[in-house]
Every structure is written in structure tokens, then in C-alpha cells.
Amino acid sequence: MKGSNAPQTDIEAHVPGEVAADRRAKQSAALISAGAVIVLGLAKLGLGLATGSLGLIADAAHSGLDLVSTILTYLAVRWADRPADVDHPYGHGRAENLSGFIESLIILGTAVAIGIEAIRHIATGEGTVIPTPLAFAVLVVSIGVSYWRSQALGQVAQEHGSDALAADALNFRADVWSSLVVLIGLGLVVVGRAAGIQELISVADAAAGLIVALLVIAAAARLARETIDALLDRSPQDLAERIAEAVARVPGVIECRRVRLRRVGGRYFVDVIAVASRMETFQESHALTERIEREIWLTAPRSDVVVHLEPVATSAETILDRIHLIAQELGVRVHDVQVRSVDGRSEVNLHVEVSPELSLDRAHALASRLEEQIAAANPGVSAVNTHLEVEPLIGAPRTEVTREEADVVRRIQAIADDVLGPGRCHEIHVYRPAGRRRELDVVLSCSFSPTMSIARAHQQAERVEQTLRERVPGLGSVLVHVEPADDASS
């Protein structure tokens, strides 16, 4: 967050330049449309009054409504592009949806009024229309300009997901058809005058006005339905299904359990629940959510995504996995976990590290709870045996006394040679823990054949440790580092 208390959306946080370009493109498109509407609307109105054409007047009224709609669009776009704040955590994009709804109501009301007037003219035969070449020229220019603006606005609306600009594009498309109908109506009036057909003269223009009104009513109703769907949080089912399929394809996702969409202006807020293995680490889970977000952005650009991961057990889990997971949930560490098969069932032996400050009864209760949960999570386990150990102190001070304890080093070397053979163990270090004068910690490295199995090497290392404890009194911790021998020594 930079210099503001308003929360940033993911898109704004990652690509602020694109957000600014998005805003400029939408506002520029709205202003250009306003200029085109003013010029065409005034020309149609003047010619309609001069010629007495109801069709031209209806078309001019439609253009006037387009001007009102375009102004609303411009204001809505400016308001909708304001960043999210405390009172509007989802941003101000609904201003575009609301603008589109208001536009549809205005257009619908005016179109109904024009349609009623056209029906009255048809029924009574009123009205005298005097077509002029200039009227035809203005209508042809209007058709060309309206088509150009509808295409330009439609492209910008699609690229930036703007309901308000989509409404403007719809208005200009309706203008194309309405101007074309008026043009045909005036043409029929000219034909009627030339042929002396009075019915054609009195009806053609009013019929054109009625057709224009019906076209505008249909367009306004469609726009109203779309904006109402957005205002009522109606989720487009096809998009939700495509997002769910995209999430389910992400490696590591077991199932996409739920997708919820909320459309605010030209942006979707996507809430996803995905299922993943409970054995994932925190870092792996975070990486998985980022992969899910990327897939959703590819499916629904300009979306704000929230991913919730639910952990589940999978068939790939082993008894060891479940034991370590249960121990982690209980807040204890375990090591030397052994699973043995006894008469067709499994027995588990493990060492449990507990705080040295715990009393025996509390430590035993903790171990018993661990045993119960391991048995419950693994129905094939007949017995769980635990060995209590004091957890090691992290950072406990100790002093290296390898030189001072040269006799001990020689004894350790001799015992290791006796167990494994001469020269197998080396780099012997002896330490004295602080506050324990009579206790020594030992670390030594032992080499084995590179082709030896790790199980066999571990067994040999345990023999060294056990023999050292038997023959050298006063040893604390004994660590045998196992490594493969080089070619010369193997």
C-alpha cells in the first residue's frame, strides 16, 4: 500500500500502469461519443422540424437520449475508476452497472412515448412530410458515424469490461438501425409523392418512427436485464464452470469444491474453495494458491481472486506421514519411528520429545493422547509404544575439549576401529556441555562402502554408538556421521 489507507486490488497492486491505461481508454471513448452524439442529434432535430418527419424527430430524440446516456457513462466511468476505500472495499465499479440501468429506463420511456405518437399518426393519417436531399445526406452520415462509434465502443467495452461503455455501444448500434429505417421511410414518402399514393405518404414516415421505437425498446430491455443481473450479483454460469475446470486442472488440486462470482463494474470478484493434500507444507500451499490465481486470471482477466484451500487425507499418505502430522497437531516432536508387522497387524514404536519442565504425569498423558490418535487414524495398528525423552535445548552452550581429552579421543578411535575396522572412523570431536563437568558429547565421522544400503550403514553406526556408551562412561550425546568412503579407502 502506497500513501493511502485504501486497499489495493491484486491487479492494481501488480500492474498500476495497465489500470491507468484502462481508465484513460474508457474516459476517452466516452468523450468522443458525446461529441458525435451532439452533432448528429442537433442535425436530425433541425431537419425533422423543417421537414415534419416523425421518423427524423424520433431518431433525434433517440440521439438526445444517447447524449444523456453518454454523459452518464462518462460520469459513471470516472466514478467507477476510483480506487477501493474503507466504505467501498469492492471498489466503485457498481456505478457503471447503475448507470447502464438508468440509461435503459430513460431510453425505454422515451421509446414508448414515440411509439404511441407513431401509432396515433398511423391511425389518424396526420402529418405532412417534405423530404429534402439534406435529410437523406444527414441520415447517411449518421449511419456511418453510428456504426463507427458502435464498433469502437464495443471493442473498448470488451477489452476493459465496462457495462456503461457496452450500453453506449448498444445505443449506437440501435442508431444505425433506426437511421436506416427512417431513411427507408423517407424514401417511401418520396416514392409515394412521385406515384401519387397518399396512403404511402401519410403512413411510411410514422411507420418508420414506430419501428425505430420498437427497436429501441428491445435494446433497452436487453440492457436493463443485463444491468439488473449485475446489480443482483447474478453469476454467469458458463464463466463459473470454466473457472472451476481451470482450477481443477492445476497440479496439486484434488477438487474444486466451490466457485462464487460477484461482478462489480467491469471486474469479477472470484471466491474459490479448492481441495489439496493436507501433507503440503505452508510454502507449497502458498505456491499452489498462486498457481490457482494465475489460471483464474487467464480465464477471467481483471478479476480479484481469493483462494481458500481445504486440506484432506489422500490415499498416498503413509502411516509415517499420519504419525508425524498427528504429532505436529499435538505440538510434540517425534523421532526414530518404527513400524513393525506382528501377526498380520502393525505395531508402532517411537520416541517422543517433551519439555524438561513437564511433570511425569503430564508427559505421560501427552504421550497417551498421541498413542490414541495414532491408533484411531490407522485402523491396522494394534499397538503404539512410546518412549519419553527430554527435548534437546536449542543453542545450549558447550565447549570443545578435543585436545584436553586426548585420552578419551584415543579410546574412541580404538573402539571404532575394533567395531568397524581400522581407519573407518575419523574426525573425532569431544565437547563438554556447560554446567555438566562429568559429561562429554561426541561427534565422529565413519566411512562405508558407497554401494552399501543406508539401512546397513545405519545399523553399523548404531553398533558404534552402543559400544562407545558401554565402554566409555560419562558420555552424553553421541552422533555418528555416516558418509561414503572414497575409492582409495573403500
Task: Compose a concise summary of this entry.
This protein is α/β, with parallel strands linked by helices. It is built from 13 helices and 10 strands.
Would you mind describing this structure in some detail?
With 490 residues, this protein is of the alpha/beta class. The chain folds into four domains: 10-231, Up-down Bundle (Alpha-lytic protease prodomain-like), CATH 1.20.1510; 237-312, Cation efflux protein, cytoplasmic domain (Alpha-Beta Plaits), CATH 3.30.70.1350; 319-390, Cation efflux protein, cytoplasmic domain (Alpha-Beta Plaits, 2-Layer Sandwich); 398-484, Cation efflux protein, cytoplasmic domain (Alpha-Beta Plaits), CATH 3.30.70.1350. It is 59% helix and 19% strand. The chain contains 13 helices and ten strands. It has helices spanning 10-14, 16-51, 54-80, 94-124, 133-160, 163-195, 198-231, 237-248, 282-299, 319-330, 360-377, 406-420, 454-471, and strands spanning 255-264, 267-277, 304-312, 333-342, 345-354, 381-390, 398-400, 425-433, 440-448, 475-484. The strands form three sheets. It has a four-stranded mixed β-sheet, with helices on one face. Strands 1-2-3 form a three-stranded mixed β-sheet. Strands 4-5-6 form a three-stranded mixed β-sheet, with helices on one face. α11 (360-377) links the parallel β5 (345-354) and β6. It is rod-shaped, with a radius of gyration of 41 Å. The chain starts with 9 loop residues before the first helix and ends in a 6-residue tail after the last strand.
